[in-house]
């Protein structure tokens, strides 16, 4: 599979107004120079998506055929999985273990899941007064602008592209500047799968240039965005000018609560993956840990010992579990948070330092802080790195109060053998996802999204179909 570096617009690979470099964060070397879409190219992409939307080749395509195309795209991603996983790892720094065993297989499963929905988007017949037949149609929105971040580049792209296409929309996909490569591979494979030109356009570029132009464009019907809360706010303000529909999946500071009656070994493992999977660059990372007092000391000692063993290394090595952060900027940001934790008086139990592999790369050790207080920055702000903040709690009510003491509400975790306590927690916590005796579980069928400042709208599951369709009510006189 050839690595394209141009823009995919209307089925052709075209030049942008500028170029930017994408860097391998493990080696600090340039992997590729990628074309950037400026306002003129964004306009061309949106126009081609509009033409494709109005073209009978897509608009009137048999729904079973649409399902087949998505399924075919899934097959092509699967056939090319090892190569795609390597590109993802080079571009993002995540261990190959994660790209090849989790992230890219999820893309395949997700495409197949939404292939399954393409021919099942039924409306309903509604009983109404009078001699009328009233029924609803689920219709696509039109042109969807999908803006995705760098932490799960292809995976998150698929969360938007798969349901949008299954519902009959066309898509303009803007990957993050740090990680544009696998989105371009997806564009190539979509052409090979047989999607008509213009149905999926891929336009890399910087957020403030390409992303901004896409959100401003009056020809875009909907923006589906995943990224930081700060940028989400800008997207919402900008989209308001043209009254675009939007869905936002934003940041988090997810609480992870361990009660004394939990299976402690399993809980330690869960807390470790909850914060160190994906280098902690995960919107749902369990970054605030609450451990019940009676087991606190023992639990934190076991946790710190395990954190210290988290293998930093070349992300291409099968044994590596912690790769470099995505970029120099992110590495500096995370190190500044670690410094703030130390200066504000938290106690380092593990990690806390930058690292390199063969003298290079933006690596940060798996870091655990204890004696964190709720007012510290490391307890309040999304760090987006391998940094865990442990806080004490008194009882169940206090655990809930502290868990909910955040502007965010994306995810949460609880460990207990008490079924009633688990369900009480699930009901009381203000978060879009609750994991009980597990963490970081995802399935294409299960909806994902935020409460509070973590956004609105849902990715995945049947719920995502609501984000990419609109309802039309049809009245037919029976007289
Ligand atoms: P952003 O939220 O800025 O980026 C997400 C996507 O939005 C990227 O494709 C980005 O493009 C694009 N974008 C940026 N500005 C605009 C804009 N004005 N209009 C439209 N699109 C835009 O994340 P950053 O990469 O800047 O990371 C900053 C911090 O955000 C991180 O350190 C992390 O803490 C947090 N973050 C949180 C995420 C989450 O899912 N919760 C995901 C990513 C980051 P481009 O990358 O090309 O600039």
Write a structural description.
By secondary structure, this protein is of the alpha/beta class. 40% of the residues lie in helices and 23% in strands. The protein has 16 helices and 22 strands. The strands form 6 sheets. Strands 14-17-18-13-12-19-20 form a 7-stranded mixed β-sheet, with helices on both faces. Strand 7 (143-147), helix 6 and strand 8 form a beta-alpha-beta unit. Helix 1 crosses helix 8 (207-216), helix 3 packs across helix 7 (181-193) and helix 4 packs across helix 5. Residues 147-151, 174, 176-178, 206-208, 211-212, 215, 226-228, 231, 234-235, 250-251, 283, 330, 333, 382, 384 line the site of NADPH dihydro-nicotinamide-adenine-dinucleotide phosphate.
Show the helix and strand layout.
Blueprint: E1 7-9, E2 12-14, E3 18-24, E4 29-36, H1 39-54, H2 56-59, H3 63-79, H4 81-92, H5 96-117, E5 125-126, E6 132-140, E7 143-147, H6 153-166, E8 170-174, H7 181-193, E9 200-202, H8 207-216, E10 222-226, H9 229-241, E11 245-249, E12 255-258, H10 264-276, E13 288-292, H11 293-308, H12 328-343, E14 347-350, E15 354-357, E16 360-364, E17 367-370, H13 377-380, E18 387-393, H14 396-403, E19 411-415, H15 419-428, E20 433-436, E21 455-456, H16 463-467, E22 469-477
Parallel strand pairs: 7-8, 7-10, 8-9, 10-11, 12-13, 12-19, 13-18, 17-18, 19-20
Antiparallel strand pairs: 1-2, 3-4, 5-6, 6-22, 11-21, 14-17, 15-16
Helix pairs in contact: 1-8, 3-5, 3-7, 4-5, 5-6, 10-11
The protein binds NADPH dihydro-nicotinamide-adenine-dinucleotide phosphate.
NADPH dihydro-nicotinamide-adenine-dinucleotide phosphate is lined by residues 147-151, 174, 176-178, 206-208, 211-212, 215, 226-228, 231, 234-235, 250-251, 283, 330, 333, 382, 384.
């Amino acid at each position: 599979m050839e690595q394209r570096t141009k823009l995919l617009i209307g089925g052709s690979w075209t030049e942008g107004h500028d170029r930017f470099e994408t860097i391998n964060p493990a080696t600090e070397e340039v992997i590729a120079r990628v074309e950037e879409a400026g306002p003129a190219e964004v306009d061309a992409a949106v126009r081609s998506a509009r033409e494709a939307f109005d073209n009978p080749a897509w608009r009137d395509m048999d729904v079973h055929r649409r399902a087949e195309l998505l399924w075919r795209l899934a097959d092509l991603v699967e056939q090319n999985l090892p190569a795609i996983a390597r590109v993802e790892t080079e571009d993002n720094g995540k261990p190959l273990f994660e790209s090849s065993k989790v992230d890219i297989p999820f893309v395949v499963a997700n495409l197949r899941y939404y292939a399954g929905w393409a021919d099942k988007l039924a409306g309903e017949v509604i009983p109404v007064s009078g001699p009328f037949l009233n029924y609803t149609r689920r219709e696509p929105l039109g042109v969807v602008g999908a803006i995705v971040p760098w932490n799960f580049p292809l995976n998150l792209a698929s969360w938007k592209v798969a349901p949008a296409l299954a519902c009959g929309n066309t898509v303009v996909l803007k990957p993050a500047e740090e990680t544009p490569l696998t989105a371009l591979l997806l564009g190539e494979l979509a052409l090979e799968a047989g999607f008509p030109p213009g149905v999926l356009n891929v336009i890399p570029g910087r957020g403030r240039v390409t992303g901004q132009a896409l959100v401003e464009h009056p020809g875009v019907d909907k923006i589906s965005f995943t990224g930081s809360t700060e940028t989400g706010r800008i997207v919402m303000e900008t989209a308001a000018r043209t009254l675009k529909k939007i869905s936002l999946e934003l940041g988090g500071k997810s609480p992870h609560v361990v009660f004394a009656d939990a299976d402690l070994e399993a809980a330690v493992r869960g807390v470790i993956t909850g914060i160190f999977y994906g280098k902690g660059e995960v919107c749902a990372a369990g970054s605030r840990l609450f451990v019940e007092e009676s087991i606190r000391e023992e639990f934190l000692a076991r946790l710190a010992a395990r954190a210290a063993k988290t293998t930093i290394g070349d992300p291409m090595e099968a044994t590596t579990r912690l790769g470099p952060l995505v970029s120099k900027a992110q590495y500096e940001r995370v190190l500044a948070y670690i410094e703030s934790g130390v200066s504000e008086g938290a106690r380092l139990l593990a990690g806390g330092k930058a690292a390199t592999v063969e003298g290079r790369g933006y690596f940060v050790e798996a870091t655990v802080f204890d004696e964190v207080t709720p007012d510290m920055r490391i307890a309040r702000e999304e760090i987006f790195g391998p940094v865990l903040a442990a806080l004490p709690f008194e009882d169940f009510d206090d655990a809930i109060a502290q868990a909910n003491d955040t502007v965010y509400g994306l995810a949460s975790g609880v460990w207990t053998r008490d079924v009633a306590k688990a369900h009480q927690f699930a009901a009381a916590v203000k978060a879009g996802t609750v994991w009980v005796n597990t963490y970081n579980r995802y399935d294409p069928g299960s909806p994902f999204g935020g409460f509070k400042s973590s956004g609105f709208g849902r990715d995945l599951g049947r719920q995502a179909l609501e984000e990419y369709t609109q309802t039309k009510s049809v009245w037919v006189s029976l007289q």
